[in-house]
Amino acid sequence: METHEALISRRSIRRFLPTNVAKEKIEKILAGAAFAPSGHNIQPWHVYVVEGEKKEKITNTIIESIKSGEVKNFKQEFDYYPTEWFEPYISRRRAVGFELYKLLNISRDDYEARDKQMQENFYFFGAPVGMFVTMDRRLAEGTFIDLGMFIQSILVGARGEGLHTCGQVAFTRFHTLISRELNFHENEMLVCAVSIGYEDTSAPENQLRVDKLPFEKFTTFLK
Ligand SMILES: Cc1cc2nc3c(=O)[nH]c(=O)nc-3n(C[C@H](O)[C@H](O)[C@H](O)COP(=O)(O)O)c2cc1C
Question: Which of 117, 120, 199, 222 would suit a FRET pair with 39, their CA atoms being 20 to 30 Å apart?
């Protein structure tokens, strides 16, 4: 696939087919992502690829913690979002939720249905493969830049293999449970998860097309 096509065909998929993904494809995506740049080439990432029973165990552990209320004790390790939203970001953020729930026929005040849809995150939206990307928390904030580049390489690389993805920060709230399941070392911090598989093209949630700013809106050319 041509690079531009891979870039513009990447979008977040929230319903995957149960179709198995060949291990060679996952390996090829990771082999490509290995070339992501990082400051001083420190390559500060680690990836856990989960499938089958391990993936199911993680899902069940998270869902149980939600049902039991244990989730209330879980604290995020880092802020991905601001505590107070403001424009223009708040409108962009709302637009995604609004469109997604509209496609799923979930009304704004149907908190139960919204919650259920949110929990689909923890079922990896039906994807057969999940990834957890971690870094050493002793590194500096700048390391998040490296991780972002690495993760985007996975997302775009997946397009080259005919696969789709969804980056999922939703998992990070459950880092203590995931850390236990994956045996993180003492300083390992969960940064993001990625669901990966084949798109279910019949799913309404996958009809979501978020607005993207034309580059002229975020670029200043100077001479
Ligand atoms: C780091 C990161 C974390 C994300 N976490 C989630 C998540 O937990 N659940 C989810 O449904 N989407 C998640 N998304 C997807 C975003 O909502 C999505 O990228 C955004 O709406 C733009 O849509 P697009 O990916 O289709 O271009 C995440 C995206 C990124 C980059």
Answer: 222
In a domain, 142, yes or no: yes
**Protein residue closest via CA to atom 5 of ligand 1:** 168
- Domain count across the chain: 1
**168 Cα to the center of ligand 1, angstroms:** 6
Mutation test residue for ligand 1: of 9, 12, 16, the one with most atoms within 8 Å of CB? 12
Give the mean model confidence (pLDDT) for residues 43-67. Answer: 98
Residue 172's CATH number: 3.40.109.10
Q: Where does the pLDDT of residue 72 fall: very low under 50, low under 70, confident under 90, or very high at 90 and above?
A: very high
CA of 202 to the centre of ligand 1 (A): 20
Burial (CB count within 10 angstroms: exposed 0-12, middle 13-18, buried 19+), residue 215: exposed
Q: Rounded to two decimals, what is the model's pTM? A: 0.97
Tell me the per-residue pLDDT of 197-206, one tens digit each, with 9 for 90 and over: 999 999 999 9
